[in-house]
Amino acid sequence: MSQPPSYRLHPLVALRAVRKLMSNGEDTHQVFLLIDALRGKTTLRQFARFRQTETGRAVLRERRRLLDRLSNRASLAALPAGSLGRAYYDFTTSENLSAEGLVEASQVSMAALPADDMTLYRERSREMHDLLHVVTGYGRDPLGEACLVAFSYAQTRLKGFALIAAFAARKIAKSRAEQPVRRAVFEGYRHGRSADWLWGADWEGLLAQSVEAVRAQFSVKPPKYYRMILAAIREAKEDADAAYVDPSTTSTRPNPLNWVRRQAPYAPSCPSSTQSPSRMSAGS
């Protein structure tokens, strides 16, 4: 006889997971551990809402798996430029990502789940992650992930998302004290609050639509502070590159103290309707 699910919160487990995640942002399975540790009954409430939507009823009736659609790389590549599906394909290809990769990372927390409607909903929530990167305009860089999990918290009320956003904002702000990092993350939360509920979206039907049309349909606002910070980082890097003196091109030995080192980190381009942006908010 199967045991009833437990809705207890496990704050110590969550704290350990978030610390590991802050030290290694690519350790995706920590996201799933963290989300599960603080899930409580939140997913039950979200699932009840999903089941009341037209899309939710169709997904559950047809046993529709978003993974099946996102795994069909050939059909995504064949979609027109500017469409959500093509932007998703371009993003995952350029970043060497796949929907199957999230499935593997989530096995830590989802391997023992029964094949029921709730599991179908949680799997769908997981597969949405990189689609959200494209629609919201947040990249895979640490700040983009922090903004996206803040957006996701506003949409789902999953406490794990809030914890990740808070810790990430604090860490990034320390290294970027001159930039409005916390404003950018809070803006992600505000945009999640003002947008329509993307967890109930008919993603399969949206893939052929343009990214801009999807954003307009769900009232997703473009990020202001995030783009401002990326532009400042990019400009600083370009200035440093322009000022750098290659010692191999000089006839006399230069003074190392006069060299301008390349200090600015890589700043990815903001995703647009034709080129979109780790998986820090991948928890279902």
Distance between the termini: 26 Å
Radius of gyration: 21 Å
Query: What's the total helix number?
Result: 16
Q: Report the principal-axis shape.
A: globular
Report the sheet with the most strands, covering strand number, pairing sense and barrel closure: none
Into which percentage range does the β-strand content fall?
under 5%
Mean pLDDT: 84
How many structurally independent domains?
1
State the oligomer.
Answer: single chain
- The helix-and-strand class reads mainly alpha
Which residue ranges are poorly predicted, with pLDDT under 50 across at least 5 consecutive positions? 251-270, 272-278
Write the layout of secondary structure elements.
Elements: H1 11-23, H2 29-37, H3 42-51, H4 54-62, H5 66-70, H6 73-77, H7 84-94, H8 99-110, H9 117-127, H10 129-136, H11 142-156, H12 159-175, H13 181-194, H14 203-206, H15 211-217, H16 225-243
Which descriptors would you attach to this protein?
284 residues, mainly alpha, 16 helices, 60% helix, globular
The gist of it:
With 284 residues, the protein is mainly α. Helices cover 60% and strands 0% of the residues. The protein is built from 16 helices and no strands.
